[in-house]
Design brief:
There is one protein chain. The chain is an alpha+beta fold and 186 residues long. Helices cover 42% and strands 22% of the residues. Among the domains are: 62 residues; 67 residues, SH3 type barrels (Roll). The radius of gyration is 44 Å and the shape is elongated.
């Protein structure tokens, strides 16, 4: 039994000794790795500061973008094959001609009605813009307030008192109606 214990003890002792030596060695490597990391950080900081200084030495593009007139780019125009630089006296500046904006009148058309329980909504299309809107009583469509909805008409009022009444009854062809009546009678 004693021989078996010695056979197990000595290899375990060698492994333990190896682990201790490896641990002490790795501690030394850890210190050198930390020092190398700190040197890398300092080098990266210096490079960053140098890059910032280099960026500050670049031309100010915001100032260049702020130039409004093509005359501000005389050197560029002088070298351009597409433009001729004229002396300032000869160049005439054209004054813009004011254009009167004619307000577009809303052309509203009733498209349909949707009933959801007690809630009644109408579909109204602005034919000037092509935009359709769902609206119920009290809603605004453009400058118009939907003031009344019933079976035959939709009443819209503008702030200045103008009132527009849209016919809510869809017109059907007389021929179609006649054919339907004939089919119901048979």
């Amino acid at each position: 039994m004693m021989i078996r214990e010695k056979m197990i003890f000595w290899p375990l002792a060698a492994v333990f000794t190896g682990i201790l030596i490896l641990g002490f060695t790795s501690q030394g490597n850890k210190k050198s790795a930390v020092e190398e990391l700190m040197q890398d950080i300092e080098l990266a900081t210096k490079k960053s500061k140098a890059r910032i200084k280099k960026d500050m030495d670049k031309p100010d593009f915001a100032k260049i973008k702020g130039m409004d007139d093509i005359g501000d780019y005389k050197l560029l125009l002088k070298r351009s094959p597409f433009f001729r630089v004229r002396p300032e006296e000869k160049a005439k500046k054209a004054e813009p001609i004011p254009v009167k904006d004619i307000p577009k009148k809303a052309i509203l058309k009733y498209k349909g009605k949707v009933v959801m329980g007690s809630k009644v909504m109408v579909i109204i299309e602005d034919q000037g813009t092509g935009k359709s809107s769902f609206a119920q009583e009290g809603d605004m469509i453009g400058d118009f307030l939907v003031s009344g909805i019933d079976e035959t008409r939709v009443v819209l009022k503008k702030k200045d008192g103008e009132e527009v009444i849209l016919n809510a009854v869809k017109k059907e062809d007389g021929q179609k109606r006649g054919k339907e009546e004939d089919s119901e009678v048979k």
